[in-house]
Each structure stands twice: as structure tokens, then as C-alpha cells.
């Protein structure tokens, strides 16, 4: 469930003057101390922004100005890093300054997003009344139930805003950090090396040290307890890592498209099962398209079981753990403190949404039961930060400004 994307849109664009400075003399800029120079500029510009917008009603203009100020420095240093040789003396200090400024920029964007929502909540006199599913005898879909939850429950809505923000930050880093999986495949055929060897079976002597799968359906490796060809195993691991990274960045559609491009349309279909069911035709005369998964509860139970299967790759388990709310199976694929924060928040919102659907639905079909462990631990932001404080990523936590804003 996504909150209004306009709240999370980057508000700043790079001015021409900074680009001209970068092009003029990168070596001269490297000789200076970037950390001190950028800090001094920031303090001065922040002070000026506050003086220019002293009134209370100008708060969002002030926040936009702060984001603009930091964003220009980020893009300025990114241009230097792209043009500079890594062996130059000041390179690492510039890179460190860039990383700190990116954190600064992201922090201002989070402040703006949460403050805007909290202000709107106060103006709307947000209430926690429950939806009347029996009103006028109308059928209420899973999607309508969760949409209503986000409208009336400010805490859940703001938790989702944090998720959207964490995913947007990850998406901004995604393109530059990960190799394109499509470059490693000439066509949309999954496990093409295994397929080729199966076609050649009996024609030539392959002298395999171990037998490969003899069937090409998605369940064959587990059902037969036999491996794919080595090159296909490498491609599979790369694809799974890339799909998980897309999901970490909130890019479900991109993850599905990638699966299709790599010949695994079936995997894209398993991801699509996440969508909440909604049939608008119950309450209107015009015919519209039905969306979502009417058997989402069954699909979610299967995803949970897959995330528990030790025979499955770690990233694949994490993908289905994310979709089913299995925090224990999701965390092994999380690397940074922000990843851990995102995982906990995703599971927290997932459980709250699932609870609302199951207690509010007027569907007559019995719901597939989830494991008791899914319901046992009801996370809150306070509990999450206590757990993160005791996590292996304690050092990173000390360097992150996010906790102070969300606590």
C-alpha cells in the first residue's frame, strides 16, 4: 500500500552554476577540504533560509529550501566523484562528505513528509472509528478495508510513509550499484544451459559429475532434489538478488518485468499475488476490471511456507518472507541498518493490515489460517528501535539520524 507519492518526490534540481564549477577545475576542488567547505556553506545557507522564512505558515517553504540547499551540494559532489581519479589524495574525504550529505538530504525529506501528514491529521481531527462493513448491505473488498485503515489510523499511515521513504532512498541508489541482470541473458529462456544439456542428452557424452534435473518446471529442482547447470545456478542467484533489491526499493512492477524478461513469468505471477482484492462491480452498474488476489490468504500461507524452506536460496526465502510478513526469514538478506529498519516496519504494517482485513471482511469464505508466530509479536516503533539497538548493526545505528526523528 503506497501513500501519496507527491509527498516523497525530491524537490530539488541542480543549478547550472554548480555544474559549471565542476567542469572548470576538478583537481583544484580536490585539493581543498570538501568537508569543511561544504559544512560552512550549509550553515550559512540554512541560516539565510531561516531568516528569509521566519513566519510559522512558511514552514514548508523552509523545509523545501533546506532540501534544495543539500541537494545542490549532493549533486555537486557526485559530479566531482564521477570525474575524479580515485587515487587523488582528497577523494575518500569527498566520498565521505557526499555520503553524509545524502543522509542529510534524506533526513530533511523525511521530516517534511511526516510533518505534513501530522499537520493534515490534526486538521482533519483524525478518528479511529471502525468501518461499518454492513452499511447498506454493500460488499467491502480487502483493498477498501485497508484503504479505510490508512485514512483513519494516523499511526499506521505514518508507518507506511516511513516505509515509502526508506524505499525511495534505496531506489535512488539502486541504478548505480547493481549490474543489469538482462545483460547476462540473450533471450527470455529460463535455465537455458540446463535446457541445452537436456536436449543434448543421448546425443553426446556429457560426463557430468552429478545428474541434473530432468524436467524444467519451477518445482523440479526441489521435487527431484537435483541441481541446475552451474551457469544457471549463478544466473538464478543473480536474478533473485536483483528481484529482492527491486522490492527493497519498492519497485514491484520492475521486479515482475525483470522476471518476465529472464523467462520466469511464473515468478512474476507469484509476486503479483500480493495485491489486495477489489471488485468494484458489486456496488455499481458499470463494469470495471477486477484487481488483486481473491485468494490472497491462501497465497500468503504458501509464501510463508516457502520462506521457511531451507532448500531455497536465501534471497528467494527473503522475497517470500517479505510478502508473507516473516521477519525471521527476511532479516538474513538485509545488510544495512536501514534495511533492518525497513524489514521491521514492513512486517509491522503488514500484520496491522492483515488483522484489519480478517476482522472487518464480510466475505463468507473461511480464511486460511496463518502460523501463530505471525500474530504473537505485535511490533511498535518503540519495540523496533529497541530491537535494532541490540542488533549486529549497532555501529551503523549510532551514525543514523533516522531514529531521532521516528522515536
Characterise the protein shown here.
The protein has 407 residues and is an all-alpha fold. It is 62% helix and 0% strand. It contains 20 helices and no strands. The chain is globular, with a radius of gyration of 25 Å. The relative contact order is 0.09. Residues 11-19 and 21-26 have low confidence and may be disordered.
Please give a handful of descriptors for the protein shown.
mainly alpha; 20 helices; 0% strand; globular
What proportion strand? under 5%
Radius of gyration: 25 Å
Average pLDDT level: 83
Low-pLDDT ranges: 11-19, 21-26
Task: Work out the number of β strands.
Answer: 0
Structural class: mainly alpha
Oligomeric description of these chains:
single chain
Q: Helical stretch count?
A: 20
Mind describing the biggest β-sheet? none
Task: Sum this structure up briefly.
This protein is an all-alpha fold and 407 residues long.
Task: Note the topology.
Blueprint: H1 16-24, H2 26-31, H3 34-52, H4 59-83, H5 91-124, H6 142-152, H7 154-177, H8 192-200, H9 220-224, H10 230-248, H11 252-261, H12 265-272, H13 296-307, H14 314-324, H15 327-330, H16 337-360, H17 372-376, H18 381-389, H19 394-398, H20 402-406
Amino acid at each position: 500500500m503506497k501513500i501519496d507519492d507527491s509527498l516523497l518526490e525530491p524537490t530539488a534540481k541542480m543549478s547550472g552554476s554548480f555544474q559549471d564549477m565542476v567542469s572548470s577545475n576538478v583537481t583544484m576542488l580536490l585539493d581543498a577540504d570538501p568537508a569543511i567547505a561544504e559544512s560552512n556553506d550549509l550553515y550559512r545557507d540554512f541560516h539565510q533560509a531561516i531568516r528569509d522564512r521566519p513566519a510559522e505558515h512558511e514552514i514548508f517553504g523552509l523545509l523545501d529550501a533546506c532540501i534544495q540547499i543539500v541537494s545542490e551540494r549532493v549533486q555537486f559532489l557526485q559530479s566531482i566523484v564521477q570525474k575524479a581519479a580515485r587515487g587523488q589524495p582528497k577523494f575518500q574525504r569527498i566520498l565521505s562528505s557526499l555520503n553524509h550529505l545524502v543522509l542529510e538530504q534524506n533526513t530533511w525529506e523525511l521530516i517534511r513528509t511526516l510533518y505534513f501528514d501530522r499537520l493534515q491529521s490534526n486538521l482533519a481531527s483524525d478518528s479511529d472509528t471502525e468501518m461499518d462493513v454492513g452499511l447498506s448491505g454493500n460488499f467491502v473488498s480487502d483493498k477498501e478495508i485497508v484503504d479505510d485503515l490508512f485514512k483513519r489510523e494516523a499511526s499506521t499511515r505514518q508507518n507506511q510513509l516511513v516505509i515509502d521513504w526508506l524505499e525511495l532512498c534505496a531506489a535512488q541508489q539502486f541504478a548505480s550499484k547493481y549490474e543489469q541482470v538482462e545483460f547476462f541473458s540473450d533471450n527470455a529462456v529460463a535455465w537455458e544451459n540446463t535446457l541445452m544439456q537436456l536436449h543434448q542428452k543421448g546425443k553426446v557424452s556429457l560426463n557430468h559429475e552429478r545428474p541434473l534435473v530432468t524436467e524444467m518446471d519451477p518445482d523440479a529442482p526441489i521435487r527431484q532434489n537435483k541441481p541446475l547447470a552451474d551457469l544457471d545456478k549463478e544466473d538464478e542467484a543473480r536474478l533473485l538478488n536483483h528481484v529482492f533489491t527491486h522490492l527493497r526499493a519498492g519497485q514491484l512492477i520492475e521486479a515482475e518485468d525483470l522476471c518476465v524478461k529472464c523467462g520466469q513469468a511464473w515468478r512474476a505471477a507469484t509476486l503479483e499475488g500480493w495485491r489486495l482484492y477489489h471488485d468494484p462491480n458489486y456496488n455499481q452498474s458499470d463494469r470495471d476490471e477486477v484487481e488483486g488476489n481473491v485468494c490472497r490468504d491462501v497465497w500468503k500461507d504458501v509464501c510463508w511456507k516457502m520462506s521457511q524452506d531451507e532448500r531455497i536460496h536465501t534471497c528467494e526465502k527473503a522475497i517470500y518472507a517479505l510478502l508473507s510478513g516473516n521477519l525471521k526469514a527476511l532479516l538474513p538478506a538485509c545488510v544495512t541498518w536501514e534495511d533492518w529498519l525497513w524489514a521491521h516496519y514492513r512486517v509491522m504494517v503488514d500484520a496491522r493490515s492483515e488483522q484489519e482485513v480478517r476482522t472487518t471482511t464480510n466475505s463468507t469464505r473461511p480464511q486460511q489460517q496463518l502460523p501463530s508466530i505471525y500474530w504473537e509479536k505485535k511490533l511498535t516503533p518503540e519495540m523496533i528501535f529497541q530491537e535494532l539497538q541490540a542488533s549486529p548493526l549497532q555501529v551503523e545505528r549510532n551514525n543514523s539520524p533516522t531514529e531521532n526523528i521516528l522515536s
